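--- STAGE predict ---
source: upstream dedup step, 1 unique chain passed
mode: sequence only
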Amino acid sequence: MADRLDQPRQPGPRLRLYYDPEAFGRLSERIARFLGTARFLVYMTVFVAVWVLWNVLVPAEWRFDPYPFIFLTLMLSLQASYAAPLILLAQNRQADRDRVQSEVDRGAAERNQADIEYLSREIAALRIALGEVATRDYIRSELQRLLEDLREPSPSAPRSGEL
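--- STAGE serialize ---
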């Protein structure tokens, strides 16, 4: 049957290998994390020391990399050529996580700022409202003043016995 343009193509055999970029990224981070430890430095130092000592101290027929240790140099170069991209990949993933976390933090800070501004306005409104509310001391003093006014005879009021 001829290829029809009105129907999707059937997928053919894939020639490329499939890999999960997320799983590869996690693996690269684990490797990069290990490469940055003192344990790795100790292991690498022991490995190089054993390599050099073996190729210097054992009989000539057992040596596999005589001085100037070209094979060792090749191995270390190969390790470095894989370590550098893995470290860069891990750093890029960390930078992406940091960027996302920064955006989340920025959003939270904006919400907190909005909440603080709202609460500040509410407190200011309450202070203004409290300024207009008669306090207990104010009412007490006013009642005291009225009571004193009632106890004093007014000059225009007739005195008892003067009628």
